[in-house]
Amino acid sequence: MAARATSSGTISFGLVSIPIKVFPASSSRTVRFSMLHAKDKSRLKQTFVCRACDETVERSDTVKGFEYARDQYVVLDDEELKAIEKQSDRSIEIEEFVPIAKVDPIFFEKSNLLGPDKGGAKAYRLLREAMIEAGKVAIGRFNQRGRQQLVLLRPTDEGLVMHGLYYADEVRSFDDIELGDDIEVKESELALAHQLIDQLSQTKFEPARYEDDYRRQVLEAVDQKVAGQEIVVAPTAEPREQIIDLVAALKKSLAESGGKARTAKKPARKAAKSKGGSKGGSKSGAGAKKKTSAAGGRIKAVK
Fold first, then answer.
1. Cβ partners under 8 Å of residue 79, min gap 6
2. CB environment 195-212: b (16+ within 10 A), e (fewer)
3. In this structure, which topology does domain 1-25+63-169+293-303 adopt according to CATH?
4. 92 burial type by CB count under 10 A (0-12 exposed, 13-18 middle, 19+ buried)
5. Cα–chain-centroid distance for residue 123?
6. What residue ranges do the domains of the chain occupy?
7. pLDDT in tens, 93-121
8. What are the contacts of 60-65 at 24+ separation with CB within 8 A?
9. What is the pLDDT of residues 154-202, one digit of tens each?
10. Which pTM was predicted?
11. How far apart are CA 296 and CA 299, in angstroms?
């Protein structure tokens, strides 16, 4: 089933304007539960209750207020908010090009796929190939719903990916985090840590190797209850031994990971095979086949 665009717009840099369509890059499969009335298992609806008078308030009787001090609000009506809003022409205005290696992933918020709209295929391809050759990504602003979203456009072998970015004042610094005392790391400890990293290292990230165990177990439990079966609770895992000695912990980790590292790829192939046989599995496998990475500030395709 072909992906459906959530919106359309344009990419503009200089005097060039490229019509594009925006597609969601991912779809959450997190298990979600509905809130039900315990007595009759009917679904509940959300209501607003005033804290001051304890009355139920209809949505039409609500206004938007900003809390500027504790329990102190200033109200902005729709007209006042509309005067503040920016143009909502869904344009992506590129402001600069930078190496991908210079962008900290902590700024990444969400992702969308961009495809060319009618008449924009050649300009779209030109921009993508030029960015790959230059080893750069684009930083710009996406104007939609009256607001400006800071975005990054990243070229891949297939097309352009748009990543929403947090603004600088939305990202926390390690200055706010307690990191403990300045402790010296011994060479022997560092050597053991390197050895453990080497044992657990892979040549590339393969998303298909990983599965959401919680979601799988919840869905299995749901199927059992629908079929009228009793849910069997798995035995609680033994608590992990707390090893205070760092060197002893590293050595034990090396001993335990040795077997796992040698057999890691066997279950990965089985998982990929079973997934490919399920509905929609082959499509997701194809989507994960090609990615881009940055090496020395240069974007290159990784097969």
1. none
2. ebeeeeeeeeeeebeeee
3. Ku70; Chain: A; Domain 2 (2.40.290)
4. buried
5. 28
6. 1-25+63-169+293-303
7. 999 999 999 999 999 999 999 999 999 99
8. none
9. 999 999 999 999 999 999 888 888 888 888 888 988 988 898 888 888 8
10. 0.66
11. 8
